[in-house]
Design a protein that fits this description.
Helix content is 37%, strand content 19%. The chain has six helices and 13 strands. The N terminus is likely disordered.
């Protein structure tokens, strides 16, 4: 047997051993469908995620941070590995490649351009854009996240059962303690879930899942873009049935007021004003013309009557 053949067989055997180790029972990335986990030599599982050309070590038993997930989603589209899905985000500026610090959004984002802006802890822009001299002294925390979605089921279920099912799904699937689920409300076909977690709570419990990450995972789940392992599909079980939801919308409220101006609304407001003014002017013109015609008609009628009386 040639040396090259022996080496090839050895390489194949080595690959088989590595694959077997990677597929050790119980060693999988629960919170990311394409996360890679290995348990070589009987050691505990070590898990990683691929972000463009870089490999990042992560804890696959906990939700991956929104910053890292956004970075992963934005980079492949640029290097041709994956097409960006439509409607992936409902943030102010959509999907961008964020700067992260240990999984946390940096307060200032420039996205590899000369334009910079400040974001909150959810990575959502909270100031006007500027140049590279733009200063962001602190990362303002998002302490209230509203998850809005619409029911996609015609099944009649009690509000109490639906509330309990939603709480159970959020706590068990995303690992968020129940104390951060502030309220669940219903309005016609819409469901509103209030998640609240302030800075002091997060500082006192640093290992607790962040409500921002929960909202990001949940948004993906409702859109049918499950980020978790394939054997863990998104479900809201009620009475042995899966309660279906759709059209997620995430709203963020920060501990400090945002600094966005109303410039974005200026064009729209001007357009509305113009339409109203045009309508008013058109109405006045029609009224004047109508009165003129009526006046001419009345004047002609009076003249004819006078002529008849004289005759």
């Amino acid at each position: 047997m040639k040396t090259s053949t022996v080496l090839s067989l050895g390489a194949v055997l080595l690959c088989c051993i590595l694959v077997t180790q990677a597929q050790t029972p119980g060693c999988k990335c629960n919170t990311l469908f394409d996360g890679q986990c290995n348990a070589a030599g009987g050691q505990p599982c070590t898990c990683t995620m691929q972000i463009g050309p870089d490999t990042k070590q992560v804890n696959c038993n906990k939700l991956i941070s929104k910053c890292l997930l956004m970075k992963k989603e934005s980079l492949p589209a640029k290097i041709g590995r994956r097409v960006k899905p439509e409607g992936a985000l409902i943030d102010n500026d959509g999907l961008y490649n964020p700067d992260c610090d240990n999984g946390t959004f940096k307060a200032r984002q420039c996205n590899n351009t000369d334009t910079c802006w400040c974001v909150n802890s959810a990575g959502v822009r909270r100031t006007e854009k500027g140049d590279k001299n733009k200063m962001c002294p602190e990362l303002v925390r998002t302490n209230w996240v509203i998850v809005q979605m619409k029911r996609n089921n015609t099944d009649q279920v009690s509000e109490a059962d639906l509330k309990q099912a939603l709480r159970t799904t959020i706590t068990s699937r995303y690992g968020l303690p129940d104390k951060y689920i502030d309220n669940i409300e219903f309005e016609e076909d819409y469901i509103f879930i209030d998640l609240k977690q302030n800075s002091s709570q997060k500082a006192a419990n640093p290992d607790d899942v962040d409500i921002v990450d929960v909202a990001y995972y949940m948004e993906k789940d409702v859109k049918g873009m499950n980020l978790m392992h394939a054997d863990n599909p998104f479900k809201i079980p009620i009475n042995s049935k899966n309660f279906l939801v759709k059209e997620p919308l995430i709203m963020y409220i920060d501990e400090k007021p945002h600094e966005l101006s109303m410039k974005r609304l200026t064009a729209g407001v001007i357009a509305v004003i113009v339409v109203v003014v045009v309508a008013i002017v058109a109405g006045i013109v029609v009224l004047v013309l109508t009165r003129r015609k009526r006046g001419k008609y009345e004047k002609t009628e009076m003249t004819e009557m006078q002529q008849q009386l004289r005759s």
